[in-house]
Each structure stands twice: as structure tokens, then as C-alpha cells.
Amino acid sequence: MAAAVEPRWRQATFIQDVRSRVSASQLTRFQKMYTEPFFVINVDPVVPAPVRMRLTVSGSQQATYVVTLQSTGLFKCSCKDAIMTCRRNGCVCKHVCFVLYRVLRHEGLDFFDNLQLTPDEVGSIASRASQIQIQEVDRSNPPHVAPRPDQLHFDFCHSKRPHQIEAGDDCPICFDALLGSDVMRFCPECGNGVHQTCIVKWMEHRSTCVYCRSKLWSNYRGD
Ligand SMILES: [Zn+2]
Ligand SMILES: [Zn+2]
Ligand SMILES: [Zn+2]
Ligand SMILES: [Zn+2]
């Protein structure tokens, strides 16, 4: 198996580069990307100008926050920190750090100089956003016969065979690696895997499979 290249945000040198580059208030927020749970609950790449991309993010609590990228290259977040503090401190909130560097895999650090992406960067970020969480359903195997909802207990004895997880496969909700994680759940309809904690979080806000939009998940109880 070929070793997949770790994304930039997971490379040890990256956090060192960030540390030498950004203000203390920015570093505090950036480091939360590694120490706090973050989940992408919705991606909306088709939004009216001047907004180029809109993501809904959640953390350890129930609350959700909306991160938008404007065509000017500036980010906005609906969280209190972004509105009350970040502007004054000349930094971006932890949700913007998570979205830009972990979800959308931006690698450059020039962003932190003026907290604005270049027009080229806006284009590539927006096109990357349009590719995530919108995945083709694998129809090569016919879907299994779905159990009645009252029978659905997610022991996965009815399930399509789970897809093999490989190096480089990331969870579509937290955007961290799937390989090596202990607790996973596989969609009975499409066979794709997610972290169990992430699908529990997802189901607090959504009702269908993160990959294939299967409604089988609506009775999932988080076990
Ligand atoms: Zn925020
Ligand atoms: Zn069963
Ligand atoms: Zn996850
Ligand atoms: Zn599915």
C-alpha cells in the first residue's frame, strides 16, 4: 500500500511554521483546531454573490456557527468570538482556522498577514468546497432490501459490506483521518465509513447519510 501524504495541517512542521508567523491571539485560536472537536454539519457552495461559500460548523456543544467566504477573500463567522473580539485583535476565530486549513486544506500562511485570500485562492477554495460532502453513490451493487424502520437497530447484519478504509481517507464530518480510529460506523446503504462520534453529532442536525443521503439513518440511536 502506497503511503499517503499527510495533509499539511497534520504535518509537524506546519504548526511550527504557524507559531513563528502569527500573533499570540491568532495562535491560541489556531491551536484549537487540534485540541477541540469540530464537525462540518453542512456545506453550501452555491450561494448568492458576494458570498462564495458557506459552511455550518459545530463543536462540542449543540450550537452551530456559519462560516462564509466572501468573494473579496475575507471570512466571516457567526460566533461571538469572531464578532466581539477577533476584529479588534486582528485575527480569525477557531472556526475559520478549522474550515480553511483542515476542511479545505489550504496550505499557505500568507493569509495570516492580512486575513484575506487572494482572488486565485478564493477560486480554488470555492471549488474545493463544492467537492466535499457531495459524493456519488456507488450503484455498482444493488442496494440491500431495507429493514422496516422499527426493525432498524444498526447491528449492520443487513448492511452492504463496509468499504475498506485506506490511508488518506478522511472523515467527511471532522476531516481527520479515518484509518486507525477505533470506533466507526458504516452506512447500511452505501457502505461508506465515518467516525461514530461524528455521525452522532451529524444526526443531531441532519437526518440522512452524510455520503449518500440514505434515509436509513433516521432511526439511528447513536449506538
Ligand atoms: Zn467562529
Ligand atoms: Zn439486524
Ligand atoms: Zn470524524
Ligand atoms: Zn450512505
Automatic annotation (TrEMBL):
What superkingdom does the record give? Eukaryota
The record ties this protein, via Pfam families, to:
zf-RING_2
Location of the SWIM-type domain: 65-104
Extract one GO molecular function annotation from the record: ubiquitin protein ligase activity
**What residues does the RING-type domain cover?**
171-213
Instruction: Fetch the PROSITE patterns from UniProt.
Output: RNA_POL_M_15KD, ZF_RING_2, ZF_SWIM
Q: Which UniProt keywords apply?
A: Metal-binding, Transcription, Zinc, Zinc-finger
The family database entries (PANTHER family) matched by this protein are listed as:
PHD FAMILY PROTEIN, RING FINGER AND SWIM DOMAIN-CONTAINING PROTEIN 2
UniProt similarity note: Belongs to the archaeal RpoM/eukaryotic RPA12/RPB9/RPC11 RNA polymerase family.
* The protein's name: SWIM-type domain-containing protein
Taxonomy of the source species? Eukaryota, Viridiplantae, Chlorophyta, core chlorophytes, Chlorophyceae
